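As a warm-up, study this chain.
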Amino acid sequence: MTIPDPRPETRRFEVGHSASIGASKSAEPVFDIDDLSVTYGDFRAVEGITLDIQPSEITAFIGPSGCGKTTVLRCFNRMNDLIESASVEGSIRYHGVNLYGPRIDPVEVRRRMGMVFQKPNPFPKSIYDNIAFGPRVAGHKGNLDDLVEESLTRAALWDEVSGKLAEPALALSGGQQQRLCIARAIATSPDVVLMDEPCSALDPIATLKIEELMLELKKDYTIVIVTHNMQQAARVSDRTAFFTVDVRAEGVRTGRLVEFDDTGVIFTNPREQSTEDYITGRFG
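Now compare it with the structure written out below.
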């Protein structure tokens, strides 16, 4: 089964498609998650997660370690499939299509979801080849030089590396490497960019550049970010999901969603006391 391509350049040719995606919450959600649970063997990592991810917004997942933030994030691009013991229950719909349907190709899913990891992980190749690798594999027919420049420009890195594209990417600073990884992620024209603690290994100046970049990129991409930095979530996200951990019999820990709302509400007037306790540093 082919997943419908929601990107504007494709969408405008589809007959009968409704209005274009915008930032309004009345728009069709990019992801619609209903009663999601993930288990690894006999261990239930998260359960009962229900939320939606709106287009052209930054959605932040916050909460203490082990509460399932990254597990949920990895469900969006089916990376949990790579873990043999993992099992996903419930529903994740991407633009109305069940991502875990029997006819869905996980590889195609991952092509729609750019992924940026906690630590910068450039390939041991040149700066140019880091960006060009994905498009080459995907059979890009256009001008690779233009695509590399465009991707690096959108990642706010072109001015710093334009004269040394043939040099090793591993020679860049940590912050530059992470922006390179973002450029690599968007070079294949994804619909969504998933970020798992993208600034945890960076200094404050590099972190600020990444945050400014996220705010710029959300004009064209839907971004979901996992972060332990609550100030970062407050600065960049439109909506925030707060997760916690339930400790059950025999010390079994299972993540669950406490509340999900506009970021301003979560940080200034949360509904749940546990959210306020976490935001104010009383636990977690």
